[in-house]
Amino acid sequence: MLDDFLIRAGLAGIGLSLATGPLGSFVVWRRMAYFGDATAHAAILGVVLAFATGLPLYLGTVLVALAMAATVAALASRGHAMDAALGVLAHTALAAGLVAASFLPGLRTDLSAFLFGDILAVTRADLAWVWGGSLGVLALVVWRWRPLLTATLNEDLAQASGIDPRRERLVLVVALALVVAVSIKIVGALLIAALLIVPAAAARGASRTPEGMALGATGISVLSVVAGLWASLQADTPAGPSIVLAAALGFVVLLPFARRS
Fold first, then answer.
1. CA distance 159 to 139
2. Are residues 45 and 102 in contact, defined by beta-carbon separation less than 8 angstroms?
């Protein structure tokens, strides 16, 4: 019988996959990979602020991640170059978080868990946050699927159809911020972007429809969680990076299909 901590880790990873699969597909389609990094880096600042003020961890990370999302959306609407703006915000937020952590001696050791993740330390309360947040994000994406997809494919067509591309962009970045906030303890700030991008990229070449790609990305993410945890248990390797490497292996396996697509 598997240990309880391993079952909790698997359930947390599977719950997270329900959101990262479809959301990661939009990240790939919109070429927003760097936004995932920027939001994840900002979440470190949220962790520090939560510890400093006594706020619940997830609330602190959600607030800072949402602030990052709103800032990026505002800069994009004013015509600023996204890559430069994201680079400045990402590194500034990460540096501010690390500097602020130096004033909290008790947090210095724990911060590595939020950088690299510690899925094996997931508690029952963490499971509730992860599943609640992931199902909320999934419901939001399903609800806005058609407008989000139309705005992603062609903003002019979206406007002609009565869809506001800026609103859909904001919905997407808010959903990304929420996913980063609930997943930071599982795979860590430095690996969450990989979990969003790699399964979606792996599913892209083998999918015929956008819906098929979203479902495929979710399936690959779930398999990556199971395979990564098994490899971690067998080889005594870090669980979070092992999950990402399992997803990368799926990408390599499906690469020939992408070349023929």
1. 24
2. no
Angle between helices 124-143 and 165-183 (to 10 degrees): 170
Question: What span, in angstroms and rounded, lies between the C-alpha atoms of 137 and 147?
Answer: 15
- Can you list the domains of the chain with their CATH numbers? 4-252 (1.10.3470.10)
Taking the C-alpha atoms of residue 116 and residue 92, their distance in angstroms, rounded to an integer, is: 19
Q: Which amino acid is at 173?
A: V
Rounded Cα distance, 193 and 211, in Å: 21
Token output for 10 = 């698997």
Question: How high is the pLDDT of residue 205?
Answer: 79
- In this prediction, residue 103 carries a pLDDT of 81
Residues of the chain with pLDDT under 70: 1-3, 73, 76-83, 106-110, 258-261
What secondary structure letter does DSSP report for 120?
Answer: G
What confidence score (pLDDT) does residue 18 get? Answer: 94
